[in-house]
Amino acid sequence: PERFGDPDPAPSNPIRYTELLKTQSTMVASWPTVQRVHESRPALAVLAEINGGLGGTFFEEIRTRRGLAYQVSTFNQNRMLAGEFSVFVACTPDSLPTVKSLVSELTRALAASPPTEAQLDRAKAALVGSWMIGGQTNAARIGRIASLTLSGQPLSDLDAWPDRIMAVSREDLEYVASTWLDREPVATGMLLGKSGSDADPGR
Questions:
Q1: In this structure, what is the dihedral angle of CA atoms 117, 121, 122, 125, given to the nearest 10 degrees?
Q2: How many CB atoms are located within 10 Å of the residue 107 CB?
Q3: pTM for this prediction
């Protein structure tokens, strides 16, 4: 259940950037989502898995089809008070304006174009597999127990997470995309590289 209100509206100037003498630019665009106890957290995790990383839909569109980036990833983080869904891209300085617009376009399109059942099944299997492997050591399990305790969640959630992931449907993905991602990013951070002879790859 929700314990807090909706995320704050977009700031008046949501873009921050720093210029570096490098041949590569990077950007992170972020959308506020939900705290970790929210029922939509599993769907947001699945959506990030489908779209991010090697072979993800964002990677395929931005890098494979258009050749605009070196690296593309999406990730979802949910903390005690709030969460974020973010897209990271590393590209050439000349490609950055196009990439920035494309990231916004692709994210907003998630609400109207839910993934296929095959994509959904692969993402759920990957998340559950990673969860199981990541919890094999005592240290990892203690860390998860501490996290649940600090956020006020029952310890039963420790073993319930894989079931919650497997229960995510295409309708759940459409809901979270339309509710939290169907708008411009609330914050965008960029490291701006320089093209040509002005760039110093060693820095």
A1: 170
A2: 23
A3: 0.82
